[in-house]
Design goal:
By secondary structure, this protein is of the alpha+beta class. Helix content is 50%, strand content 18%. Helix 3 runs antiparallel to helix 4, helix 8 runs parallel beside helix 25 and helix 14 runs antiparallel to helix 24. The relative contact order is 0.10.
């Protein structure tokens, strides 16, 4: 299966998005088709052996929409052309609407000649400015469907037909109490207001996906490729492949992923990791597309095509997340799908009801038209996706990758968060925190320890070697080196037996109990001696990160219970848990034990988030309701966890929770507004509260409702998540 993302044009509401999705999904050879209405994008997985892009495009166009593919003119130019056309139609719509309104508001509006004049102007307005409404409405009819354009087309056509009938058959109208008022002004104003709303809505929607465009803009469009003869040429980024050699000058962005083949430099990788410190790069080091070469010129051997770079995968991840649907959105989608039919039915009931109740035909028609035009499925359809798109984009700006809308919604519902200790709360790199060296120990003795540890394969040996070398110790000559499993190592020097190891080894060498004391650091104690003499005691500990305690305090303030799980010993775990203020901890746990612990919490009704390195904790992460992978942004697999953080800094976690809570709060505000607007607006437009709402003001209210939802979502751009 091949995955492609295309821009879809001419969608007016969420029903259109649903139609495009169903149309493409029904094609043979298509696996998955998803439409992000907020971003006007179609993401499709298809088998190129069965169906090609042009066939998909033809199917979308047959359904009444447009699809921008690679073979089309520049996407930005197409967007500008569409914007220019919309502005021209909008200007014409307002010019004709004002002209008709000016005539209608004076005494001329009741004269037959001037009424015919307004009829001609209104006809031009509807035929030119409102043409797309009728075309799309007809497409919906052919597909046995209905959308927002159906409501606009029905309302404006009803007002126009009724008004034409009024001036064509004035005697009949007067005889049957229809009056002599015409509603060309309402029809033209509806078109003008709806077009205005669409323009504002489109501009606001474009702002919601600005994060994606910012990420895409990080990758240069071309690069300087060196050939075998030493020459160079400027090549489009799409034509660069693995194995090519690319020249990157100081100050330029690295165009593709690769390894440094020549030169030394410092690279700004903050766009990936969020870390401000520049990273030294030498021959053989990896570099990534979008990062900035700060100093020397380097040549890079390309290891990935432009479509498969880390940056490209991040863009794909963010785009997929923005196009995903949160569980809360599904209810709104179902309502939107049937909303138009309900509104048309309600408008028909309004028309018949007014006539049965003894109202004039004119009143009945105007109320029915107002019902059609005030209804707004767009607000319902935009309530969730716009907020989700902005929220996930905001997260991406802070180097937080959220897999989908479901993850974003679940995060704010989490009641507990489980953290791995090593590498998440602590540095993950043990250091010597205490060294007590006997006065009897000489540098030669310590040299024996250094020589023994250099031969040892124990994970902590390297830490001891580094500590001794920092003290200026040099290795002494040793022989008969032996590693004793589970205890330590021993070696001979000048006929004497030296040993380095655990408390058990110290006891076996008959070291005095008074010399063997529990350390206050909760770490690992290493003893060094000769015979039964204790020469030195080293305490190694994995130190807690400076940011861990403040981060855990922030998580607790946000209402989460924070638990620490570790395979380390109980004393070490207790020290760390107390230092960072964890709600609770469990020590000496195997990976399966961590999974069972989370499962037990879930059985007690908790919603559990788990943060770990994504490798050793894979089973626990898979079991958690929300899995958060933490680590170096260049090494982690961004596809695995629900949330991926580029660094292991716990300060990122409160930001994720805070952003999730604020995003879902705006989603709920949008849904509340959309439902309340329609629940109140429809009966008001029907005249049930004794208010006769002119259709043009109903159309203005409809336009405002959609724009309000989008603008409310855009408030997330101003939110500070730190």
């Amino acid at each position: 299966m091949v995955k492609k993302t295309f821009e879809v044009t001419d969608m007016s509401c969420v029903v259109c998005a649903s139609n495009v999705e169903r149309t493409v999904q029904a094609l043979k050879g298509v696996g998955i088709a998803k439409v992000n209405f907020a971003a006007n994008e179609l993401t499709v997985h298809f088998d190129p052996r069965i169906i090609n892009i042009q066939q998909i495009k033809a199917a979308v166009e047959a359904a009444g929409y447009g699809l921008v593919t690679d073979g089309d003119i520049d996407e930005e130019e197409l967007r500008r052309e569409k914007y220019r056309n919309h502005i021209i139609r909008l200007a014409a719509a307002w010019a004709t609407a004002i002209a008709v309104m000016s005539i209608s508001m004076t005494s001329l509006g009741t004269q037959a000649t001037w009424q015919w004049a307004t009829a001609i102007i209104a006809t031009v307005s509807l035929a030119y400015c409102g043409r797309r409404f009728y075309e799309r409405a007809w497409q919906m009819v052919k597909q046995h469907s209905a959308n927002m354009d159906t409501l606009v087309a029905l309302s404006t056509a009803s007002a126009w037909v009724f008004s034409i009938f009024q001036i064509a058959f004035p005697d009949f109208a007067a005889k049957h109490g229809m009056g002599n008022h015409v509603y060309f002004d309402s029809a033209t104003m509806i078109v003008a207001f709806v077009l205005t709303g669409r323009l504002l809505e489109e501009k606001a929607k474009n702002s919601t996906s600005s994060a994606i465009r910012s990420l895409i803009d990080l990758q240069p469009s071309n690069a300087t490729v060196l050939d075998d003869c030493g020459g160079s040429r400027l090549v489009d980024i799409k034509d660069i492949h693995a194995g090519d050699i690319v020249l990157v000058k100081p100050g330029g962005r690295i165009p593709v992923d690769g390894t440094v083949s020549q030169g030394d430099t410092y690279v700004d990788e903050s766009m990936l990791t969020g870390e401000p410190m520049q990273v030294a790069k030498h021959k053989g080091d990896k570099v990534f597309a979008g990062t900035i070469n700060k100093n020397g010129a380097i040549t890079v051997c390309v290891t990935a095509d432009a479509d498969t770079t880390l940056l490209a995968r991040i863009v794909d991840s963010v785009r997929d997340a923005q196009g995903s649907k949160a569980p809360v959105q599904r209810v709104a989608d179902v309502i939107s799908r049937y909303f138009t039919y309900v509104v048309v039915t309600f408008a028909a009931i309004t028309l018949i009801g007014w006539i049965i109740a003894g109202g004039s035909v004119a009143t009945a028609v105007i109320c029915a038209v107002s019902v059609l035009v005030i209804a707004c499925p767009c607000a319902l359809g935009l309530a969730t996706p716009t907020a989700i798109t902005v929220g996930i984009g905001k997260a991406a700006e802070h180097h937080i990758l959220i897999k989908d809308a479901t993850a974003l919604e679940r995060i704010c519902k989490a009641t507990d968060i489980v953290l791995d200790k090593t590498g998440t709360i602590t540095e993950g790199k043990p250091i010597v925190v205490s060294a007590k060296i006997s006065a009897d120990a000489t540098d030669e003795d310590l040299g024996v320890m250094l020589a023994a540890e250099k031969q040892s394969e124990h994970p902590l040996a390297g830490v001891l070697v580094a500590s001794l070398e920092d003290r200026g110790i040099t290795p002494s000559n040793t022989d008969k080196f032996a590693a004793i499993v589970g205890k330590g190592v021993e070696a001979h020097h000048n006929g004497q037996l030296y040993w380095v190891g655990s408390e058990l080894m110290a006891h076996e060498r008959n070291v005095k109990n008074s010399d063997i004391k529990a350390n206050a650091h909760g770490g690992t104690t290493i003893y060094f001696g000769c015979g039964n003499r204790l020469l030195a005691v080293f305490v190694l500990a994995d130190m807690v990160k400076e940011t861990s305690a403040p981060a855990i305090a922030s998580l607790k303030r946000l209402g989460l219970r924070v638990y620490m799980l570790t395979g380390d010993n109980n004393a070490s775990a207790a020290r760390v848990a107390e230092e960072v203020g964890a709600t609770g901890f469990k020590a000496e746990m195997l990976p399966d034990d961590k999974e069972k612990y989370i499962l037990d919490m879930q059985h007690r009704g908790r919603i559990v988030a788990m943060a770990g390195d994504g490798i050793n904790d894979s089973s626990a992460l898979a079991r958690a309701d929300v899995s958060i992978a933490m680590g170096n942004g260049t090494d982690i697999a961004i596809e695995t966890a629900m949330v991926t953080l580029p660094t292991s800094d716990l300060q990122m976690l409160p930001r994720v929770v805070r952003l999730s809570k604020k995003t879902m709060r705006i989603v709920h505000q949008n849904l509340f507004w959309a439902f309340i607007y329609n629940i109140i607006g429809l009966p008001v437009a029907a005249g049930l509260f004794g208010i006769m709402l002119d259709p043009m003001w109903a159309s203005a209210a409809m336009a405002v409702s959609s724009v309000t939802v989008v603008l409310n979502s855009l408030r997330l751009k101003l939110v500070k998540v730190k």
